[in-house]
């Protein structure tokens, strides 16, 4: 990115032709950003080049929560910012997010919105502040906040409008990327449980097997099937059965690691890919899930609750299998071993002689 010529030619008194040219360039490049990180990189460049503030921070909203975290920061002496969260309505940035309006504060130390969070982010700040929302219509994605460590400078309306333009184009870019991600997630997500679908599972198991070969790290697979799920459908109907499966999807998501990939394999059968996980780690997770499913009860109304158990099978690459087909087949066989011997348990190969054990 080379905008030095456009940036240096901007007339600070008004948006002249050079300023418009630079703004168009900003719009084009932000619109072409491939991911959120690329947007941040470009926003950082524009803020430094066009406004050159002493201190600044970009807050990003966390999902649908009315809460933001700092994801980009240029400050002197700030510390422990990773744990900072700013709620809508809290402090300067929170006020901007809640109201969807820009804010210029001439002296932050005399403003009632000054908080401890702001002091942690900008411990050397002495004077003025400029804060603008990153938004599209009424959807707030975050806030960009600039500050000065000198009482001699005050942000003006030109600075505000320029930062609003950067924030507006950033909001459009973030909205486009998130919309694209939602569409991509629909393709790979099971619409009932919210877990990945079987198509994505096959793509990922192939990828993870190759990665395991290159890295020499083990890869484990867990298959599990709900015990007697057919009785739920027969007794209460398929609508209750579907709602039960959806809740099981939530139970799974709550009990796995971020690196694990859980899919609905079909019907009431599920499969988990555990990258860089040996047999011992897989057994620990399978037992955790087995207990979680057993303890879960589903409220079907009229003070009636239902619960089920599940049967789990484990296979580890390359210890138990040397191909995708064998790995899937081994985990599946171990699962059915539990089914045929009482259900509600975990089975896996425990030694090189092929002796198997149910736990």
**CATH class descriptor name of the largest domain:** Alpha Beta
SS elements, strand count: 14
| CATH architecture classification name of the largest domain | 2-Layer Sandwich
Q: At the third CATH level, what is the topology name of the largest domain?
A: Beta-Lactamase
What is the terminal separation in angstroms?
58 Å
- Report on the biggest sheet: 6 strands, antiparallel
CATH superfamily of the largest domain: GAF domain
| Strand adjacency order, main sheet | 3-2-1-6-5-4
Task: Tell me the count of domains.
Answer: 2
**Coarse structural class:** alpha+beta
The pLDDT mean sits at 87
Strand content: 15-25%
Label this structure with key terms.
359 residues; Beta-Lactamase; 45% helix; elongated; disordered C terminus; Alpha-Beta Plaits; 2 domains; alpha+beta; six-stranded antiparallel sheet; single chain; 11 helices; six-stranded mixed sheet
